[in-house]
# Entry
Amino acid sequence: MQTPGSQTSLHRANRERVVRAVRMAGSLTQAEIARSTGLSAATVSNIVRELKDGGTIEVTPTSAGGRRARSISLRADAGIVVGLDFGHDRLRASVANLAHQILAEESQPLPSDVSVTEGVARAGDLVDRLVATTGVERQKLLGVGLAVPAPVDARTGILGPTSMLPGWSGTDPGTALAQRLGVPVHTDNDANLGALGELVWGGRGVRDLAYIKVGGGIGAGLVMEGRIYRGPGGTAGEIGHVTLDESGPVCRCGNRGCLETFAAEGPVLSLLAPNHGPGLTMERVVRLARDGDLGARRVLADAGRHIGSGVAGLCNLLNPGLVVLGGPIAAAGELILVPIRESVARYALPSAAQQLTVVSGALGERAEVLGALTLVLGELGDSDLLDEGRAPAFR
# Structure
């Protein structure tokens, strides 16, 4: 029996801190573990030896700063997790082990009017099939992370209003999928998980960033001190509904002149459709712009300036050091980033603008699904992992 405050309970808590640090990063040296946990080098060394002897972690030679070091990661066969990303026209899945090694990935088309029942069924089938391809035993599936293009109530898992998946508002796809798979499912907004993906898998090396996803809508994932800020109703980061023009087009939210009505994919594509046809995609617009099409370049520049106005307001409120642009439009690179930076310089406080770096995402269309992996990795129980890799019980 462990008495709270006893040496035994303190030692176990320290072991859990080490396991969590390694689990969230994928792999760390002992010096990095000491810095991230605040534990002494001697304590970390002793715990690493115990965890290695107990079969919880793996230790491999590496180098850090030109010196020999040891890389610490969770045992590759301790378990697997799955990330899922629902878009308005596709479903993406990724399977990884606890050492952050991607074992399998797949993307499949999804009808834009898919029902939540059919969407959950497709997701469940995809998870089963993808896990089977890895050769890992099904019982080693520890959990699933689910990215959806809608606000998510953190208390209930219920989705808020969404135009990307009509009919999904007010539903709880996470619980339905958990019942289908028999493992815990953790659900969050896709922009939030894009931010997590860029933070952890994109190698950003920061604790604060804003991820701006531009697609059928526009949303922001906000990371503060290494944690996603969601707000009590899960609607933090709805930058797409910042008003730019009170007399502008009517937005799906009921207001006029929201950022989405000027810079989301629909409005942008509609400006170029007369010259390039109704089947135009953002990917093609980016290619046209890169090839020198003046109309495409002008439309992207205008969209960038509008996005930059929203980012400027974000800077004045939260003062992030890094803004990462995601979604298909981000592939335009400097063609879209330069006008964003120009608007930020014009509308943000000089001190906030000078400290800000604006870049395209490093992960492309994989940011959200990798963020979903990060979400479920963050929800695993460290005590369970210490107890012979036992998976958390599903309730």
